[in-house]
Amino acid sequence: MPLLVMKFGGTSVADLDRIANAAEKVKREVDRGYNVIVIVSAMAGKTNELVNWVEQTSHLYDAREYDAVVSSGENVTAGLMALRLQEMGIPARSWQGWQVPINTTSAHGAARFVSIPRDNIDRKFEEGMKVAVVAGFQGVSPEGRITTLGRGGSDTTAVAFAAAFGAERCDIYTDVDGVYTTDPRICSKARKLDKIAFEEMLELASLGAKVLQTRSVELAMRYKVRLRVLSSFEDTDENSGTLVCDEEEIMESKAVSGIAYSRDEAKITLVTVEDKPGIAAAIFGPLAEAGVNVDMIVQNISEKNYEGHSGAVTDMTFSCPINQVERAKKALQDARERGEIAYDDLVVDTEVAKVSVVGIGMRSQSGVAARMFKALADENINIKVIATSEIKVSVLIDRKYMELAVQALHDAFELDKTA
Amino acid sequence: MPLLVMKFGGTSVADLDRIANAAEKVKREVDRGYNVIVIVSAMAGKTNELVNWVEQTSHLYDAREYDAVVSSGENVTAGLMALRLQEMGIPARSWQGWQVPINTTSAHGAARFVSIPRDNIDRKFEEGMKVAVVAGFQGVSPEGRITTLGRGGSDTTAVAFAAAFGAERCDIYTDVDGVYTTDPRICSKARKLDKIAFEEMLELASLGAKVLQTRSVELAMRYKVRLRVLSSFEDTDENSGTLVCDEEEIMESKAVSGIAYSRDEAKITLVTVEDKPGIAAAIFGPLAEAGVNVDMIVQNISEKNYEGHSGAVTDMTFSCPINQVERAKKALQDARERGEIAYDDLVVDTEVAKVSVVGIGMRSQSGVAARMFKALADENINIKVIATSEIKVSVLIDRKYMELAVQALHDAFELDKTA
What we know:
The structure is a homodimer.
Chain A: E1 3-8, H1 16-31, E2 35-40, H2 46-57, H3 63-70, H4 72-87, E3 92-95, E4 103-104, E5 113-115, H5 119-126, E6 131-135, E7 138-140, E8 146-148, H6 153-164, E9 169-174, E10 195-197, H7 198-206, H8 214-223, E11 227-231, E12 242-245, E13 258-274, H9 279-289, E14 297-302, E15 313-321, H10 325-337, E16 345-358, H11 368-378, E17 385-389, E18 392-398, H12 402-412
Parallel strand pairs in A: 1-2, 1-9, 2-6, 3-6, 9-11, 10-12
Antiparallel strand pairs in A: 4-5, 7-8, 11-12, 13-15, 13-16, 14-15, 16-18, 17-18
Helix pairs in contact in A: 1-4, 6-8, 7-8, 9-10, 11-12
Keywords (chains A, B): Amino-acid biosynthesis, ATP-binding, Kinase, Lysine biosynthesis, Nucleotide-binding, Transferase
Enzyme class (chains A, B): transferase
GO biological process, one term (chains A, B): homoserine biosynthetic process
């Protein structure tokens, strides 16, 4: 019998009415002939309540106890969803992580899947169960303790089950109706995409389009799980939402599929750094140790040769989240005091934002960067840093121009029109 | 190393401050050299919230899912308590029912213990853990589903652990400071007892002194677990509260230890019943099937021999909770219609209450009943039904005299004075 995985996030199961609404969506798929594995999050707000209790109880808390407490929210939703389905006449039962079992590593609070044996759930399907409701976000360690995958981990649970059970598709029900060419709050012409490739989704997700957790998309890409993002709060059918899939399923791609942005960026420049082998490692090693998420890196070869600098010198520029600037400064100053690096000045610009154009089509179509730069130049937007990858071009610009840039690029790449 | 079991009920762990307060009491015992098993209830109100969700979701709910949902409240408290103890420097960890494992029957919602293997917890004690915090009220079935013991089951969990681990004592922390000679709200002279025998506590508990769940006292009596009831909200030491123990530990007993009452009683009389063998079974069989909790039964041999009654006749009187009267009437009327019993009239008196004097001392001291009847007669209180057992005498009286009767009996047996 064909199998679907359906995942409902916290806002989709926020109260009993919404659980009933989600159950209706499950019933529709059962009526179509599917066996269904439903992955549920905690009711909206419950996880935060539990996390607050833990944090108020203990300052440096034992992550094993954190997981034991916080995982209870999903258990409640799983039981209620199973009850609701039963009330509608559908054979269903709930599964907590240890009952499946969802075997994970012992990295409490950030556990990773080890295995999801199918036997227990398959046996129940064979006995006539139509829906297995699984508590998301949790698993069990080799020591028999409850683990959690970290916030947002229910998306990853859903993809892992879809992979383990060979599901036809993994439908992620959420509070948006799909993936857009860009953020509709910033650009009114933003258009919902019918399909998007895993690689594009990864770039859009990690760049701030918070529809799907990055890890879930990576897992889906690795196991070729067809993911669909769609709304819990609208009538949906088999064509609703956005399908995130292998690029082979996407017949024809534009050069650019979407425009991502990240508002809270900072740019840090180390002025007059000695340009010698190992200097990048000397700079970014301490930053990594300090937990700074360095994103773009640009090294400007400089011909300046000031007094006191015997060899060639350079300026080194990188970007990081704005709330990590102090940490980054301290790490670099400490490294300078230890004599590991030398620089004349450290210049911080906290008034920048990142805008990226993303598309697998740019692999085969040239001129994307040039078209991007021209669109920004036409609006008199100055580009501070450029970084490119195979399927994206990112720029740092003044934050005040961010919305204008997104709109201009959306127009320039004609994203309001279907391919 | 000596071991204590300490149990904290819902009001004792109602919020983080109270959990911290309970943790202080645990620390005191650890400092005295004990290993401790702490049994916790859900934070007050949480279980009701979960039960309401289940009942709103499903009318005839699947008890297995009910248990999966409702048990989550205790899991949260167990984790928070373990965290709080760790924060105080005490090696502690939480245990959910399936982790111990607490093996129970599959009678979901009313499961009974099958076994509590010590291995897992003992191993952790050997490794240096000082406190095992166990979620009360739950277990795991042979099928691997979560079970619950029914409301109030955390007391029973505590006693079962005390028995399984050979604990020196099982301390039940609650919102009262011990067991009293009678209800202090009714009789201002009520005095806290230092010790009470299991049998007495059973009579007091089942008669309405709701300090301990009956089943937990039965279990404690069977395994000779010394139970102590004491307050979470007061400073307590090794002499606080009331010890519920084997009667051999009680050096000297008064004839009467306490006075119990039950306000919501009803008296039902079947008038002119044929007095023949099997008549009691014919009456009380249908009542039992209808789930009526019949308490006192009195059969008045009557010499009346009315027209239409060939043999001897009798009146049969029994008492039951007032909210079961309609059920009882229907069961009896149905039995009459089926021709299984015959009676002239069914008279219901819903204005009665039960008052009982309880004491293991009455086994060896005579005259208790006479002294009781005289005290009631002195207050002009009419006795409607009398029932006696080895360690108690109960009477049904008009409800309006109940408080007066309790006070009069408390004085008559000098319960305000220590033995």
